[in-house]
Amino acid sequence: MQMIADLHAHTLCATHAFQTMNEMAAAAKAAGYCALAITDHAPAMPDAPHIWHFANGNALPRVLDDVVMLYGAETNVMDTKGGLDLPQGHLAGLDWVVASIHSPCVPGLLTEKEANRIWLAIAENPYVDCIGHSEQENYRYDYDLVTKAFAKNHKVVELNAGSFSVRKDGIPNMKKLLTACMENGCHIAVDSDAHSAWRLQTALPPLYAMLEELSFPQDLIVNATRENLVKELELHGRRCAKEIGGILL
Ligand SMILES: [Zn+2]
Ligand SMILES: [Zn+2]
Questions:
Q1: Ligand nearest to the Cα of 167, by number
Q2: Ligand 2 centroid vs 225 CA: distance in angstroms?
Q3: 207 and 161 in contact (C-beta within 8 Å)?
Q4: How far apart are CA 187 and CA 222, in angstroms?
Q5: Other C-beta atoms within 10 Å of 233: how many?
Q6: Which whole-number Å values give the CA distances from 86 to 54, 78, 150, 239, in the listed order?
Q7: Helix/strand/coil (H, E, C) string of 33-97?
Q8: Which tens digits make up the pLDDT trace of 15-73?
Q9: How far is the CA of 62 from the centre of ligand 1 (A)?
Q10: How far is CA 30 from CA 69, 76, 126, in A?
């Protein structure tokens, strides 16, 4: 198994990540990827860049070091109603938006009912593309119920390699979540969530092993083929879909 793109990666604009955008593009090229989404932390996270970072994509080229770049964000869930920390105008202008629960933004544990409410609301948010590392044990939700809503609304569930190394409590949940995705036809993305070039290039093999063990179908993995990725951007109504399709296909 080999992906053609990584759809969740961070850069030095948060100081707990270690590489520039150019270095991450070069690392993606060396890994054999044709596309890379830069999804730096949205402003509510400590150490995040200023909100202006997320409205300045015009300053950047579509292709960097032969890699098609998607300029996105990892937005933070801020409350139990699925509120996010970037306004709709910003989210609409981005190429790829991951929505994640991070403990500095939603402190404490959530009941399953609260976690269900969050993700069912985000399923209806037209500006969210992908659900980030949602297998965390502290934020368990009803995988069957919610992945049905994700599938219906074209939300992509992320299988996150960062979780595999730093959020180990959720590893058993990953398989349950993937099984629900398979049963309900919910698309997934296989991402590094890399905060360094090294992680971008080395983090995915444990996830590949899990997908192979489950015989997870390639047609549900949005970054398994160029065609899947372009089709997904079209399904999400992303403005970049046509331009990226013209380059990748
Ligand atoms: Zn995250
Ligand atoms: Zn991240």
A1: 1
A2: 22
A3: yes
A4: 7
A5: 24
A6: 9, 10, 21, 18
A7: CCEEEECCECCCCCCCCCHHHHHCHHHCCCEECCEEEEECEEEEECCCCCCECCCHHHHHHCCCE
A8: 999 999 999 999 999 999 999 999 999 999 999 999 999 999 999 999 999 999 999 99
A9: 24
A10: 15, 30, 33
CA–CA gap between residue 70 and residue 243 (Å, rounded): 11
Greatest alpha-carbon pair distance for the chain in Å reads: 45
* Ramachandran region, residue 107 (left: φ > 0; alpha: ψ -120 to 50; beta: rest): beta
Separation of 97 CA from ligand 1 center, angstroms?
12
Which domains can be identified in the chain, with CATH numbers? 5-248 (3.20.20.140)
Measure 42 CA to ligand 2 centroid, in angstroms. Answer: 10
Q: How far is CA 209 from the centre of its chain?
A: 20
User: Token pair for residue 136?
Assistant: 């965390």
CA of 78 to the centre of ligand 1 (A): 13
Q: Residue 69's CB: how many other CB atoms inside 10 A?
A: 23
- What is the amino acid identity at position 221? I
Q: Which residue has the tokens 């202006």?
A: 52
Ion ligand 1: residues, CB within 5 A, are 100
Q: Residue type for 72, please?
A: G
Distance CA 40, CA 31 (A): 20
- In this structure, which ligand is nearest to the CA of 102? 1
Ligand number nearest CA of 192 is 2
Q: Which helix (H) or strand (E) holds 7?
A: strand 5-9
Q: What is the pLDDT of residues 177-202, one digit of tens each?
A: 999 999 999 999 999 999 999 999 99
